[in-house]
Write a structure and sequence with these properties.
This protein has about 350 residues and is mainly β. It has no helices and 30 strands. The strands form 6 sheets. Strands 12, 15, 18, 20, 21, 23, 24, 26, 27 and 29 form a 10-stranded mixed sheet that branches. Strands 11, 13, 14, 16, 17 and 19 form a 6-stranded mixed sheet that branches. The N terminus is likely disordered.
Length: about 350
């Protein structure tokens, strides 16, 4: 299996939203009770379809010179780009020093929307929401990266697409361009990564993923920063099994029929299919492998590592099925290997991740 190229990008964040939560009260009046700092209390980057309200309302925390939350401080929320609208644009902080906009509805077009929060003469806090286009599996979406798009912290412009997967199974997603080196990411609606690919051929990208039915997102961007140009995004369901030691991304909530073949990964004559899964720190999964013809074996490794973090041959004394439970110690990609305890063995099996 190819090692996945390490990347560092975030639209604050592609991963988990980390909220700064402060407790305690304050009073905007009295000696020393002056708004001294203004910080974001909610995530500063969001995604959503055009002309819809963002799911997480932008909020800020106002503190005094001693660092205590300041109640009663006026905060103004203002749309600064994208053509959206707000309600509750003039708010005051509550007893915890927090002010939250009433609502934020994005503009009519996909792309960047920005909202500022200000109090007094303090530096404003800017919230960015990326309007998502819609991509239907089995279709082609022709678009372009442009300076009006949202932008990752690494400098790449990005277009986000909402994708509804109708049935659980295997899907291919492709991004092609003659203008730039493409980069494609597949994510949950909460911006948690599922799979990512840079090079499929020379400058194109492809993701093969086995996922349950539901709503997902695609992020189409470039490997290089500040690059613009046309690209095409295509997708299709597939019945192709895992083979040739390819990168196949999976997630919790799937059950998939597969088979060990002579073209699969081979280590010392033992064949295996290898699946790539992104786990957040502390996330728990249970992986099962059942077969009527194979002596099933499952192990989980860190991406790029060779040592098994957990493994299992026979889940009990009455079956040759395998099952492992695993809790990730760190956030990142892991490898699930489905194999047989018999060298060179081939045959059908079913893999489940719950």
């Amino acid at each position: 299996m190819k090692l996945l190229r390490t990347i560092v990008f975030s639209l604050a964040p592609v991963g988990l939203l980390v909220l700064q939560i402060s407790c305690g009260g304050g009073d905007a009046s009295g000696p020393g009770k002056v708004a001294t700092t203004l910080t974001a209390h909610s995530a500063t980057s969001l995604t959503g379809p055009p002309e819809t309200q963002v799911m997480e309302l932008p909020s800020v925390l106002v503190s005094d010179a001693s660092g205590n939350p300041l109640a009663g401080a006026p905060v103004t929320f203002t749309v600064t780009s994208g053509g959206g609208t707000v309600t509750g644009g003039s708010e005051t902080t509550n007893s915890s020093g927090i002010a939250t906009v009433g609502s934020w509805t994005l503009g009519t077009d996909a792309g960047a929307n920005t909202l500022s929060a200000a109090t007094g003469s303090l530096p404003v806090i800017t919230f960015t929401a990326c309007g998502t286009a819609t991509h239907t599996p089995g279709s082609t979406s022709d678009s372009q990266l442009s300076p009006t798009d949202c932008q990752f912290s690494g400098g790449s412009f990005v277009d986000f697409y909402t994708v509804t997967i109708p049935t659980s199974g295997t899907y291919f997603f492709n991004q092609t361009s003659t203008a730039f080196d493409t980069y494609l990411a597949f994510l949950t609606p909460a911006n948690v990564l599922i799979g990512i690919n840079d090079d499929f051929g020379t400058s194109d990208s492809r993701i093969k993923a086995i996922v349950p039915a539901g709503s997902f997102m695609l992020a189409a961007f470039s490997f290089d920063s500040n690059v613009t140009g046309n690209y095409s995004l295509t997708s299709a369901p597939s019945t192709a099994e895992v083979s040739n030691c390819e990168d196949v991304f999976v997630m919790k909530g799937i059950t998939t029929p597969q088979s060990l073949q002579t073209t699969d990964c081979s280590t010392g004559g033992f064949l295996s299919d290898e699946y790539v899964i992104f786990l957040t720190k502390g996330q728990a999964i249970t992986v099962g492998m059942t077969s009527s013809v194979l002596d099933s074996y499952v192990e989980i490794r860190a991406n790029g590592g060779t040592a098994a973090l957990v493994f299992n041959d026979n889940v009990n004394g009455t079956t040759q099925n395998a099952e492992v439970a695993f809790i990730s110690a760190t956030t990142g990609f892991y490898i699930i290997a489905a194999a047989s305890k018999t060298a060179g063995a081939t045959g059908d099996y079913t893999l489940s991740i719950q």
